[in-house]
Amino acid sequence: MACHRVSSFVALGGALGGRHGVPSQDHIFFPCSTAQSRPRSFAGSKNPRKSPCCFAQAAQLEALGITETGKFSMSDDDLSSRGFQLHRSLDNINLDDLNALFVKVGFPRRQNEKLLRALEHTGTMLWVTKAGSVIAFARATGDDVFNAIIWDVVVDPAFQGIGLGKAVMERLMADLTRKGITNIVLYAEPNVLGFYKPLGFVVDPDGIRAMSLSRRRRA
Amino acid sequence: MASVCGTSVALLGALAAASSSIAPRQRCSAIQSLPSNSSQWWISRPATQDYYRLRASLWDSISGVLKTNSSTPIVEPVPRNAEAEIEGEEDIVLVEKCQENGTIQRIVFATGAEVDVYELQQLCDKVGWPRRPVGKVEAALKNSYMVATLHLHRQLPSGGCEERSLIGLARATSDHAFNATIWDVLVDPDYQGQGLGKALVEQMVRALLRRDIGNITLFADAQVVEFYRALGFQTDPEGIKGMFWYPRF
């Protein structure tokens, strides 16, 4: 039986030339666990919403809708015990360090001022440091209400293959869905499609195509 | 309603050259004396100036983005509010039509126009899009880097206040530096079929390029891919694919 309203999703896409929506779900109700996990003092409580077991479970659903268990594949504790620190704002970011990371994975080097302007106008971001150095990053732009586009997902090659990319993506997506955004899109190079598919991303759904106009290409 | 395609850039040049010396009111009656049907659209010159400037160098720099088949010299429509251009906002008269009773109708492209969310809601209803909470739409517009609009302005012969109605919209989100993504392009069905959608996106792309956004992206339904290709957009550039998140749990 439903005992705690965890979150609500509004179904609407923002695609071009017509609407493309993700499946509609008005509310997500998470069923209470069985009676034996309830503390004895609450036995006989008529209002299951007040049961602490529900709140405990709700607190664990940090990745609701994003992972099968509703929990991150690698917990925050897992990360910190390995010396990784999570950041969600621009505080203490070192632009040279970040630029160096982009270059390491093959992105073109960008001007610090332009990069800073881009970051200042980015609604959601997540980056990981180890010993003060940035080793993973991802950000999402958009209107903060309906649509989000994920850019610049990078993991330092020295730290790839241990689940950091997934850790960053799951958390970024959780932050976005918590804001109520359900239309999350991205542009993926052919060699990383396999990274995004297990996270729930689908290529060209219903024949929708990503298109771009780039001054760089025309030059 | 029979109409000349109002957004052919080539026509702009030809008509401007023909009528550059005629003041607006006289021009109106001159058009009325032309043969063919009376509800004839023609391309406006800017409200504040009587000529178009040939901006060949600007055209060269963005050629390939916008395509035309005509051999007429290409001219750039001059914004009707010179101050707006300096402030970084566009305000361009795309089409002007003078009716027999003297009413002037203009279709104006703008990037700094105020959008009435209830007008927008009505427009979305008209094209058959599902309704969205008004508060959220307001927030989405506010958080957009650029909201481009097409408004129909009607000025009565008495010269009183202009009526203004929203007939098209497109918005772009951006990080203000590298990328912009265009969403929600729509044109009132009553005004479709005359090139306004093309002009809307075309002018928006120009405006974004002017602001030095080097990568303009969008997601196109299968049936509108060709529409955007004609405006200079490419599918899957360098094999890059668009991906959408579908919640599975």
TrEMBL record, chain B:
PANTHER family: ACYL-COA N-ACYLTRANSFERASE, GCN5-RELATED N-ACETYLTRANSFERASE 2, CHLOROPLASTIC. PROSITE patterns: GNAT. Residues 107-249 form the N-acetyltransferase domain. The keyword Cell wall biogenesis/degradation does not apply. InterPro entries: Acyl_CoA_acyltransferase, GNAT_dom, NSI-like. Residues 1-20 form the signal peptide. Keywords: Acyltransferase, Signal, Transferase. One of its GO terms (cellular component) is cytoplasm. The keyword Lipoprotein does not apply. One of its GO terms (molecular function) is N-acetyltransferase activity. This is N-acetyltransferase domain-containing protein. It comes from Selaginella moellendorffii.
